[in-house]
Design goal:
This protein is of the alpha/beta class. It is about 40% helix and about 20% strand. Strands 3-2-4-5-6 form a five-stranded parallel sheet, with helices on both faces. Strands 7-8-9-11-10 form a five-stranded mixed sheet.
Length: about 575
């Protein structure tokens, strides 16, 4: 079954507002229109968006729970109490954990950390770990990127005499844990911008407040200043990897965090950059976190234990850092290999078992690793355009660990709630969720899930959309425009790298298949007197389609600079194409 055909849409253009911004800020009209598309319509708002001054970080005391939690932490440190930071195993959790561990090193606190094993313990705070930590003498437990739903586990910790500070950003349930302190941007009565900070961002704000208290001044002492700049870089990793909106103060986190990483990376990140092939003088972008650093950091939590990541991010020993980074590189390659294999097996299962016509997809196998299935579910959604549940079955226990991804308009957590009577547990949000199911109940889950999807989409999920921002003639694609586009960095959630439309193109010569198994297409397109190279990655099987209407096409793309043999040229990184002169916009 070929990949689903996307519906192209073009963002409505507000030429008057764009021209105003262009004149006020001396910007390209294209970039000005992109700002308008992002609801940035005044000159002051545009300057704030583009400049991202450090003053855009909200003071830590505004984050609910921070003042009391910071005071309690400093008191525990000064009293010599034993502290454990309990972090999640993903990039957001491990970077947030590293921030607090690095803080405690400066404070010379009795501190350690704990990261659960994804496969053996699952997400969040677990009772057995709490009991073990209490028995070992831990007196204060601080959660990072987890804990806001751990009502029973927090109660158990306090029963055992362990004080608990919960720091989290995830969705809360009606009953909050009875922790000594809770730090969360969405606490009842909070006026903090909702759903913005990641777990690492929350940890940063708490660490900042502790540093202020330890310095006895809002302006922190020099050792804490360097610590906070390093922590800004760590928080940027967590924010991007956790796909948080890159607007408002999150843009400040990521922009200045990336600058710190380029100028003065901590030992562990420097080793990781080297393994990822990022040159010392390279310009680091948010996409480098998403596609180079993030996957390597996540690989440990997916396949083994994420303690390795916290060790990497807290070590001052370059040799240890290099050894750990090399091992993470090995794990990431293993993860990539497994991901490709499982994705193909999952696609084959959809076709071979007759699920391709179902409104939603539910596939399972005992050969699949539970740390990989979330990525595989995303691949199925991309390919089939339908919500997907992927289940890794454990034959020894008769249970399956599942991960799901959804499409726009279908809140996945609501879908799983509707299937709740055949699940052991479930949790998540609209786009992604996890669950556990008894193996004999998988067929029933498939039936109920499809009933829910069918009822909400009248039998068929919506056609995936490809949102294009501006139609641009090829002649307008200059080095100056690309420099202006860089001013919109960092790109990410709610500030996606813009996708452009070019219509009425004529293909010059014959497109060429390239790469391993000829998976990619390279071709040249002409519009008037302008000729440019276009590269369509992963579209080698669409050669005949590309040439089907007399060698004319419309292209959805992002422009990029190609450097080869000392020569620089602009080319089109093709996202999708339409054969013919009609872009078929809707």
């Amino acid at each position: 079954m070929p990949a689903v055909r996307k519906r192209w849409t073009l963002t409505p253009q507000d030429t008057q507002a764009a021209n105003y911004l262009a004149s006020q800020l001396r910007l390209s009209p294209v970039v000005a229109q992109l700002l308008v598309n992002r609801r940035v319509t005044t000159a002051d708002a545009a300057r704030q968006f583009l400049d991202c001054p450090m003053t855009g970080l909200l003071p830590p005391h505004l984050l609910p729970g921070v003042p009391a939690a910071a005071a309690a932490i400093l008191a525990a440190v000064q009293a010599g109490r034993r502290i454990c930071v309990y972090g999640d195993y993903d990039v957001d959790g491990t970077t947030g954990t590293a921030i607090l561990i690095r803080l405690f090193a400066i404070l010379k606190a009795k501190a350690e950390f704990y990261v659960p094993n994804r496969v053996e313990e699952g997400y969040g705070v677990n009772r057995a770990a709490v009991q073990s930590l209490a028995n070992s003498g831990v007196e204060l437990l601080i959660t990072v990127d987890c804990g806001i739903t751990a009502v029973e586990e927090v109660a158990e910790a306090r029963r055992l005499g362990v004080a608990v500070i919960v720091t989290d950003h995830h969705e809360m349930k009606p009953t909050l844990p009875a922790a000594d302190h809770i730090v969360h941007p969405g606490l009842p009565g909070s006026e903090y911008p909702p759903n913005r900070l990641s777990g690492a961002g929350v940890a940063f704000k708490l660490a900042w407040a502790v540093a202020q208290l330890a310095s006895n001044n809002e302006k922190v002492a020099p050792p804490f200043r360097e610590f906070l700049l390093d922590s800004l870089a760590l928080a940027a990793l967590g924010l991007v990897a956790d796909v948080m909106p890159l607007r408002e103060e999150n843009r400040v986190f990521v922009k200045h965090g990336l600058e710190r990483t380029m100028k003065k990376p901590i030992v562990g990140i420097k080793a990781l950059l080297a393994e990822a092939g990022v040159e010392d003088d390279a310009t680091l972008k948010a996409e480098d976190i998403a596609f180079k650093l993030g996957p390597r950091l996540n690989a440990a939590g997916r396949l083994e234990c994420a303690r390795l990541v916290v060790d990497l991010l807290t070590t001052a020993n370059p040799v240890n850092a290099r050894t750990t980074a090399e091992y993470l590189e090995k794990l990431n390659k293993d993860r990539q290999s497994r991901e490709r294999k499982i994705t193909q097996q999952a696609k084959d299962a959809v076709e071979d078992l007759g699920y391709a016509g179902d409104p939603g997809l539910v596939v399972a196998s005992s050969d699949w690793h539970p740390g990989i299935i979330g990525i595989v579910a995303s691949r199925l959604v991309d390919h089939f355009g339908k919500p997907a549940l992927v289940i890794a079955v454990n034959d020894a226990t008769g249970t399956g660990s599942g991960s799901g991804r959804s499409v726009g308009g279908l809140p996945l957590h609501s879908a799983l709630e509707a299937c709740g009577d055949c699940l052991l547990s479930h949790g998540g949000h609209a786009a992604a969720a996890g669950f556990k199911v008894l193996t004999p109940n998988i067929d029933e889950l498939r039936r109920k899930f499809n009933d829910y999807v069918r009822a909400n989409f009248d039998g068929q999920p919506p056609v995936p959309q490809l949102k294009l921002e501006v139609e641009v003639p090829l002649a307008a694609l200059t080095f100056g425009l690309l420099n202006d586009l860089d001013k919109l960095e960092p790109y990410g959630m709610e500030n996606a790298r813009p996708k452009f439309l070019a219509s009425g193109l004529k293909i010059e010569g014959t497109p060429r298949k390239m790469g391993v198994e000829e998976r990619h297409l390279s071709f040249r397109v002409r519009q008037g007197t302008t000729l440019m190279r276009a590269v369509a990655f992963g579209m080698g099987d669409r050669f005949d389609e590309l040439m089907s209407v007399g060698g004319t096409c419309c292209v959805a793309f992002t422009p990029k600079i190609n450097e080869f043999n000392g020569q620089r040229s602009i080319e089109l990184d093709v996202i999708d194409f339409r054969a013919g002169t009609d872009a078929e916009l809707s």
